Structure formats: C-alpha cells, structure tokens
Amino acid sequence: MVAVLKTKGHKHDTGAQPGTEAPGRPVPMRHLRNIGIMAHIDAGKTTTTERILFYAGRLHRMGEVHEGTAAMDWMVQERERGITITSAATTCFWGERVINIIDTPGHVDFTAEVERSLRVLDGAVALFCAVGVPVQLPWGREEGFRGVLDLLEMRALEFEETSLGSQVQVHPLPADLAAAAERARAELVERLAEVDEQVLAAFVDGPDVPAPILRAGLRRALLNQTLTPVFCGSALRNKGVQPLLDAIAEFLPAPLDLPAVKGCHPKTGEEIERPAADLEPLAGLAFKIMNNSYMGKLVFVRLYAGMLKKGQNVFNPRTGKRERVMRIFQMHADEYKEISDLYAGDIGAISGLKGLATGDTLCLENKPIALESIHFPEPVMAMAIEPRTQADRDPLAQALQALCDEDPTLKVSTDPDSGQTLVSGMGELHLSIVKDRLLREYKVQSNTGEPVVSYRETVIATGNGDFVFDREIGGKRQYARVVLQLEPLARKAGCSFVCDLPEERLPSALRRCVEQGVHDGLMTGVLGPFAMIDVRATVLEVGYDQHDSSDVAFRTAAVMAFREAARAAAPVVLEPIMALEIVTPAEHMGDVLGDLTARRGRVRDMQTREDLQVIHADVPLAELFGYTTTIRSLSRGRASCVMEPVLFEIVPEAVQKKILDR
After folding, report:
1. How crowded is residue 383: how many other Cβ atoms within 10 Å of its Cβ?
2. What is the pTM of this model?
3. Bridge pairing between strands 97-103 and 32-38
4. Greatest CA separation found in the chain?
5. Which 3 state secondary structure label does DSSP give 381?
6. Is 70 exceeded by the pLDDT of residue 7?
7. CA distance 228 to 326
8. Which long-range contacts (CB under 8 A, 24 or more apart) does 398-407 make?
C-alpha cells in the first residue's frame, strides 16, 4: 500500500482570523481535516480506513473486508461481495485534529460516488503504486516487510505484530539500508529546495536541512500542488498507518487553507465568494442523498461558510423554496449521532429537506448563492423491469424513484415502442445491485431482463425539416408550422437549441413549446428508441396565427419537424466506448491482445512494469460483458483489468444493422 496525499489551494496561514469562528465552536477550524480514501478496486481503501479508525480509537476491533466485518462496508451487498458500493463517512480524532473521512468505492460502476465525494473534500489519500517524492522507504519486502524508514527524522519505525501494529518501536537506520536512505533524503531535500524558498535557503547553508524546516516546506509545497509526498505501508498487515495519520494531520489542508468557495447570484449571475468562516452567510452543498428506513431522506452536506442549526430555515436557489432543517447528524458509516449545529468546514447529514437533490446549494434567502453543481456521466447500460404482481406496481415505482434520488447515475425511462420500464446505470454490477436492493431493502418483487447497452443517436450531416400541424380538435382549429435545421456538433458537446426569431413572429410562450418539442425529439431519436446527442437544432421559420395557434400545435409541429430534419441529416447509432487498462504477465500478452482484437478493441499503448505488461485500449461496452471472467481464464487468473466510460462513437454499419433489427 502506498498512499499519496494530494490537495488544492494556496493559502498557508492556518490560524483563525478575527471574526471567522463562532464562540461556541467545539473544534477550531485549523484542526479540521476533510479527506477521502480512494484508489482502484481491491487496492485496500476500506482496509486502510478500518486501521485508521482502530488506531485513532474510533473502533475497538478491526474489521476485515474479506470476512464481511468492515464497519465502513455496512450494506449487505458490500459485505457479501467484499467491495465498497456506496461512499461512507466517519469522523475520528488524532491528537488535536478532527478528521472527517469518506471511504469511496473503486469499481468503475460507482464512479459517481467518488466524484461527488471529491467535490466536497479538501484533501485525499490515494492508494496505488508509488509516484511522487518519497518521504518514507519500506523496511523489507513482501513477507519480510517490517516497517518504514522515516526520511525526515532518519529513523526506522517497526510495528509490533503482537499488538496489531498499535505499538511502534523506533530504531536507528539499519546499516544495510542507511546509504539508500541518505540518497533518498538528499533527493527529497533537493526536490523541496526547487519549489520552496525557505528550504532552499537552509539547503544553501548546509545540505543537512533540519526536519522541522523540511516539514514546513513539505506542507507549503503540498498546498501549492508543486510536490506530491509518498508514504508507504501495508494496511492489511497493520504497518505504516500511524505515520500516515500524522501526515494527514500535519500536511493536509484545513478549510482555512483553501481559497474562498465561489458561486453566483441565482438571479443576476454575479460571481460571489464565501470564505471559510462561521460568521459569513450560509453556503453549503448537498453532495449525497440517502433514504433511511427510520429517519427518512437524509441529505449529506458540506458546509463551506456560515453555521447551520437544528430548526433553521434554509433556501434552495434551484427550486426557489425554503425548507426547515429538522435534525442534524454526525455520521459513522450507517450509525448517526445527533448534534445541534454544523459549522464552516464541517460535513454532516440533515433530515427534513424533501425538495433537495444532489448538487443543490443551501443558503440564506436574503443572502443567496448558487454553488457549482456536480456533473455525472451518462448511464451506459439498461435493463427492462416490471412488477411481478399488480400489487407491486406502485411500490416498485416508489422504490425506483427513491433509488434515483440517491444515485444521479441511475435513470428510469419508458421505451416508447414497447412501453417497458427501463432502468439505466453504469454497468452490469450497478444494475445487479439495484435489483438486489429492490428486493432486500424495499421488499419489492420484480422481473428484470438482461442488461443491454444504452446506445445513442446523432447526425453526421445537416438536414432541414418542415412540418405543418393543422387540425380541428374539439371543434377548434389548431395550427402551427415549424421549420428546423439540424446539424452535428463535436462529440461530448451536448445538444443546443437556437431560436433567434423576434417576439412578434414567435411569442415567448410558444417559443418554449417549440423547445419542449425539440427536447421530446431528442429523447426518442429516429432510428430506434435511443436518445440523440451532440446536435444543434435551429429554428429557421414558423407559421403563427394569433387566433388558431396553440401550445399543443407548436409542440407537435416541432417534434415532427425535428424528426424530418434528423432523417435528412444522415442519422447514425452511437455506442459507449470504455477505456480499458489491462495488467497481464508477459507470457499471456498474445492471448489478451488477440481477444481484444476480436472484441473490436483498439490498443492505444503498451508499457512494461517490471515483469508485467500494461495495455491501454478502447473497447465498445457491448463487447465487454463478462470480460473480467474471460481475461482471468486467458491468464490463469493472473491478469486484471479496470475500465471506465470515455465517449460515444459511431458503430460500424454491420453492427448498426444488427442493433436496429433486434
């Protein structure tokens, strides 16, 4: 396990400024750390978090992921599968420091959990192969791993196995490793001197820079993002966690170290800054929603400025409504301790806010601010779902709505052709977890189809559509004419609607109807039941009659004109492409590459990592069902892979025909 501490920001003063902290605040803001534990799957994130909580006194017994006893993996599905599915928050104390920790998932299907956690954190501990500047060296390897060599103090730390690593013995540097430690420390000093003037001044006076100067310089460099310090250890074997906690407390930023959070006025769009201070107007971000069977809807919030008290009214600039905070909680996985206040820099959970969604801002109505929301990737896989009995129909709809409130990457839609309800998510595992939660948590019986890829449509040429809606409905004439032009945009550009017609030719109310009609067309596509992306729709002309034109007529005319334009603009089907990283022994390289070719994969590059080969490739998601099992079979269980969605690409003509003929 190698932990890399990263952060953002540039301010170095951690002392409280006059007027920034409320008199009743329990912990000074300079002693607060908001961090995340993150890495790829099976890297040891939850194991590291469990050790941190044990050594900090938050847990009295270490939990193990492989035994299903980890406190942070509290969901039944997490304990059965041995993976983290939802980000879990907790709080512990290390000396004077209060550390709020979020343990995040590593599987690509749950990337949204990582993204929304990162959005509200000040620093992170990432676990992966060593990069950056080493602050420690390992003492021993594999089974002979005893502890770490501290390059700042030039000493060896050994973690007693009989005390589960709780007792740390300090030794002089081993003679056989002293030369390597001297070289590594010299490199650390030189790298710090390159980015920090105070360390450089001390280095000019003599190459043996004192540890306190190095520590201060290391923190400044980390806050400026000019250097990434690396710490080593093995969480599973209970070695190296306490020095990591020391580093979190000493080097990672307090909320006061970060620049003021920026937002805008919800009405004027004027940019607003809110510094981290209790006495500033309220500014908080709702970054996670959880439905609790006992407490109802819980909203996880990061408070950037101001204070939040139980019973207080807060304003949501997205909805323009006020809501009352009924209760406030401090979290420890699935356990909650009720508290009365949240202060600037705190992370907590609140209940009573029914209209809040992920990414919404909490502020004061007379001092409004809208913080930047959180953007999530589009779902790439879907499955059909239906209630098993008529009695399950309403409970299924309610359960799916609750799951969608929790998970912004989960979407529910209706197939316009078959009328089936479709649940779309980020992958096979994601949808499997949804199906399992419906049964276990919500007690809803359902029938589901096999997961299928969520395709999209776009156009590759420019086309026009002209449609006239002229009918008599209920004894009254309904008239509208809409002429549209549809043209392609760059991939990932999204969709745009342009209408520059003056008010006298198309009133604002009817303009909105045209836009709604175009949106309806984008949702349904023209080749199949696939949403259309990366296009621009421009209104060229309308036929408007002051007496006979209506909302329904213009919305219908816009939909039909859009479809005409789309058919004339060479529509094509797009498929999601996954970025694949494969790590395999060299002797299985040929089999792995041959299998990638058969799956329509494109190899971007290959690297050598000691006796392993690392392959980076782009592969269509449709070809990756069950790929983890296949690659293990090809390599006798020795290869591994991780993947993430990167973009949509046009499918080959033969593949498109198969998709549309299904």
Report:
1. 20
2. 0.71
3. parallel
4. 99
5. strand
6. no
7. 42
8. 398/442, 399/438, 399/441, 399/442, 399/444, 400/438, 402/291, 402/442, 403/434, 403/437, 403/438, 405/289, 405/291, 405/297, 405/357, 406/288, 406/289, 406/290, 406/291, 407/112
